[in-house]
Write a structure and sequence with these properties.
single chain
Length: about 150
């Protein structure tokens, strides 16, 4: 029985930001490492073939194929852990995550992007990232280090 999406308060969503930072840090590390592995396997098409048929790897490239599968699994597992929190990974490349919330009784998304210290934006359910608006009263803490 599907109970529908989880709705978050701003405080509840912000409490998850440290976890999101860790998971998207893992994703960023795996993504940085996966590019050279894809190139070593002969590009995107060859890599997709490796991922679709786990039993075969190009001759002499078994180690690269195994590493590709491991990195792809790391990324998938991190995305699943984030989604299991009740939020929605919208874009792995840019680290976008949305949280269902209510604003004046209407459903909206609280919007976070990897690297942001807190959630300070929201958008309508159909607007997406381009429709982000600042959350009134949201305070963005200064960084812990000088820029």
């Amino acid at each position: 029985m599907d109970e529908g999406p989880r709705f978050f308060t701003l405080d509840e969503a912000n409490a998850l930001v440290p976890t999101l930072q860790i998971e998207f840090g893992r994703i960023a590390r795996a993504r940085a490492e996966i590019g050279p592995v894809i190139a070593a396997l002969g590009g995107a098409d060859a890599s997709m073939a490796v991922l679709k048929d786990e039993g075969t790897a190009p001759a002499g490239q078994e180690a690269e194929a195994a590493r590709l599968r491991a990195l792809a699994a790391e990324i998938t597992e991190a995305v699943e852990r984030v989604n299991d929190l009740g939020c929605l990974v919208k874009d792995v490349d840019t680290g976008l995550v949305d949280f269902y919330a209510l604003q004046d009784g209407d459903p909206v998304f609280l919007c976070w992007q990897f690297g942001e210290p807190v959630i300070s934006s929201w958008h309508g359910l159909e607007e997406g990232f381009a429709g982000r608006k600042p959350i009134d009263g949201a305070e963005i803490p200064p960084p812990d280090w000088p820029s």
